[in-house]
Amino acid sequence: MRSFTAGAALVIGLPLTTACSVSVDHDKYHEQADVQIRTPVGHVSVRTGRQLPDTGLAVYPGSVPMRRHREAEAADVSVGNSLFGVKVAAANFFSDASPEAIVRYYRTAMRAHGPVTECHGNIDFRRHQPVCRGRLFSHSTQLAVGNEERHRLVSVKRRGSGSEYSVVYVQLAGES
User: What's the 3-state SS for the chain?
Assistant: First the structure.
């Protein structure tokens, strides 16, 4: 019985492993990467580096992409199959402008996508709408627009005499 089970697993598993593909490309300094994994049950795609992903929001004028420790300046991630998928596009920036100026800019820009929720702390989604989950002594301001399935987030905090901020787009759907 044991050899039959092992043989059956091999016969069933062999076509699945032959249908998989993995591709990893990166530059010699490991600052940019492109990873593609495809299997019969879904895919994973990760692109990192300096090319800015499409978040649907313009970059604050004069900002520069920013790395945090070993994180990339930007990432474009897609995971999914025919039933479920998630796409996340995110980028980090630094600006000489004050956090208040950046929040004002994005509050106006995000209104084109719907009502904007502003929080000093974290944002959660309840009943498909963004809600504030305030934190005592929070040093960041977060803006959100959209719903659980498709939303944009901007998180801004002071860094020295300027600001660092992140712009994120999240989409949940079928094949992403």
Answer: CHHHHHHHHHHHHHHHHHCCEEEEEECCCCCCEEEEEEECCEEEEEEEECCCCCCCCCCCCCCEECCCCCCCCEEEEEEECCCCEEEEEEEEEEECCCHHHHHHHHHHHHHHHCCEEEECEEEEEECCEEEEEECCCCCEEEEEEECCCEEEEEEEEEECCEEEEEEEEEEEECCC
